[in-house]
Amino acid sequence: MKALAIIKAGEIKLVERDMPRMGTGEILLKIKYVGFCGSDLSTYLGKNPMVQYPRIPGHEISAVIEDIAADVPETFAVGQAVTVVPYTNCGQCTSCKQKRFNACRYNQTLGVQRDGAMAEYMAVPWQKVLKDEALSDVQLALVEPMTVGFHAVDNGNVTDLDTVMILGCGMIGSGAIVRAKLRGATVIAVDVDDSKLEVARQLGADYLINSTTKDLHNQLQTVTCGDGPTVVIEAVGNPVTYRAAVEEVAFSGRVVCIGYAGNEVSFPTKLWVQKEVEIMGSRNANPTDFEAVMKYLKQTNLDEKVLVSCIVSPEQASRAMEDWAKAPGKFLKILVKF
Fold this sequence. Notes:
Elements: E1 2-8, E2 11-16, E3 26-35, H1 38-44, E4 60-68, E5 81-84, H2 94-97, E6 121-125, E7 129-131, H3 137-155, E8 163-167, H4 171-182, E9 186-191, H5 194-203, E10 207-210, H6 216-223, E11 231-234, H7 239-248, E12 254-257, H8 269-275, E13 278-281, H9 287-299, E14 310-312, H10 317-326, E15 334-337
Parallel strand pairs: 8-9, 8-11, 9-10, 11-12, 12-13, 14-15
Antiparallel strand pairs: 1-2, 3-4, 3-6, 3-15, 4-5, 5-7
Helix pairs in contact: 3-4, 3-9
């Protein structure tokens, strides 16, 4: 079968791989669309320490069921449209014992620690397959990246009393905007790209700030009547935005960090001690986050294609990755159609 592989840093190409064989309790999927994630870009750039080459990327998946092995529940049937929860969990570490499977100490994510979904077929355990034939193939490929933002909003305990600033309006930030609005919060979207801020507006953001053309602090002081946002979600992974999150959050506010900063980040400890700020990480997503995103996509009037920068064939994927690497801020989501 045809597959896309990142051979080494800076090289991605089509390769031939053997068809996967189902084990007991597994489902064979025919892949429809797979999204490129920021972790895939890091792998391509040689900046992902969790990856060994060559690696088949991809964990944002839409597919149809091609075949079913033994010991799979009868609720699954050939031809059903599905997406996949792309994480593993050991069931024994401290996170798993608290049912926080998203933060499993030994997690292996498709396309990162193990080969992913950028191929014509893949076999996965039935427990990781989520079916919903009310969603389109494109919508199913957008589920996983949106869940990460949904999970961050849950970690921040966002309510309708909160003003939430979201730093970074890529796919993960977009998911956070949607979830925060569903919770009834006032949302401030911050990015350096006006096209992403326009998408944020369509997703329901109440205020838009381009931090390269406007003074972020002054804008926030005006919007929040001098208090600052009660919740800040960092979805960039940059020392500048990490510091801004702590500097701008309100007293007794919450900061939720999703992005991985490439360099160490230093803070004046006075900021979070005097403010008594809660700072927490947010990793991956839980099954309930997947359910919430799928429910949203079925109920929204939003054209999900506003979240998609381009759809390419496997043959075009290498060029698309090169373009993304040159201008990462210009792309929201690249989908590969198999």
